[in-house]
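BUG-189 | component: ligand-complex export | severity: low

The export step for adenosine-5'-diphosphate jobs runs without errors, but we want the raw record kept on the ticket for reference. Input record follows.
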Amino acid sequence: MQGKLLIFCAPSGSGKTTIVKHLLATNPNLGFSISACTRDRRGRSETHGKDYYFLTPDDFKKRIDNNEFVEYEEVYPGAYYGTLKSEIERVWSEGKHVIFDVDVKGGLSLKKYYKERALAVFVKVPSMEILEQRLRERKTDSEESISARLFKVKFEMSFEDKFDTTLVNDNLEDSLKKAQKLMDDFLKK
Ligand code: ADP
Ligand code: 5GP
């Protein structure tokens, strides 16, 4: 089997983590690409080596210099996130397709690199008001972090037409079904 890539991107708060976690829980042929990042861990809800590899800025920089990343971005000022080449190889070596939760620019870099081997899905919410509401209700980010995330939304939305397809995350149950169908159709090709 040739391993493929499923890339879900969206402005923060749009629901891509929810969708990716659901697909992972219901499809044993998928493995998650654990990104490296330099931001702090969100308390007990996140685990090093499961949600992210939480690296110091120095360690992250060393890995950039060693050419260990397929892509990396300064997603928010001072906060670096990146996909390690070793992660994609790890998942493929387990005989699984690899699924990503990366920012919009990172997702497009992966798509550009892997072309037909990758499906790039842009996830969006029906409106900015709903996005803001979901970010607040998630209760994981400070006001400052929410503002930084909202500030980036317009910029991120401008990349939508570069993706293979868009998934509007309105009703969650419908969105999860649509995500599964997108995945099934792509893996059948
Ligand atoms: P992202 O990974 O894109 O930042 P999350 O998956 O963390 O987004 O979702 C943001 C918040 O919105 C979470 O609290 C999540 O439970 C909630 N959420 C996701 N999808 C929906 C939906 N369709 N309807 C209502 N709430 C949702
Ligand atoms: P969070 O801090 O909410 O976990 O993630 C912030 C943003 O960074 C999200 O849009 C997430 O998808 C993105 N992100 C996570 N990992 C990576 C990665 O490896 N590369 C890039 N470019 N973005 C990432």
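Assignee comment: Attached the raw record above. Strands lie at 5-9, 30-32, 35-37, 52-54, 69-76, 79-84, 97-101, 118-124, 165-168.
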